[in-house]
Amino acid sequence: MTDSWIRSTVMAALLCVPSLAVAGEEEKHDVIQVALLQIRDAAIASKPEMAASLFADDLALISQSGKLYGKDAALFDLRNGFEAWDNSEIIIRQGGDTAIVTLVNNRTRTGMEPAEFLVMQVWRKEDSGWRLSAQSSVRVKQKTPPAAK
């Protein structure tokens, strides 16, 4: 599978789902946007406790290798030193107490090359606020430049 095929397939599937966003939901979108920035700040500072309250206790995080991790592993990962973390192309589809968030995450771990990921998250509204309850991501392979002739 090529990266463009994966990206096209994910985007086509998401376009088939009717938008759950309705008028007046923008303030809730802002809360999730702020939460995404808080997770970014925790990753850059290597301080997972800054984001711990944003992760549901039953968080299901599916890694690029297909392994399933929970909240403790997700928080441990934020401790592993990131030099850069940028989310773009953020789309929030919300209905009631659930929001589906898709985004492109570009990040650089200390001592490693930059990497780009397509991310899909499920956020749930709980009594104490919005919590990330599930996330899956796939790494976008960087294109190799053509060989010089």
Give structural notes.
This protein is α+β, with helices and mostly antiparallel strands and 149 residues long. The chain has three helices and six strands. The chain has helices at residues 3-16, 26-45, 71-78, and strands at 55-62, 68-69, 82-95, 98-109, 115-126, 129-140. Strands 2-1-6-5-4-3 form a six-stranded mixed β-sheet. β4 and β5 form a beta hairpin. The longest helix is centred in the first third of the chain and has 20 residues, at 26-45. The model is unreliable at 12-24 (pLDDT under 50).
Q: What distance separates the N and C termini? A: 27 Å
Strand count, sense and barrel status of the largest sheet are:
6 strands, mixed
Tell me which oligomeric state these chains represent: single chain
Structural class: alpha+beta
Order of secondary-structure elements = HHEEHEEEE
What's the rounded overall pLDDT mean? Answer: 84
Q: Tell me the Rg in angstroms.
A: 16 Å
- Annotation, overall tally of beta strands: 6
User: Spans with pLDDT under 50 lasting ≥5 residues?
Assistant: 12-24
Fraction of residues in H or I helices? 25-40%
The tally of helices reads 3
CA-based shape: globular
Strand content: 35-45%
Query: How are the strands ordered across the major sheet?
Result: 2-1-6-5-4-3
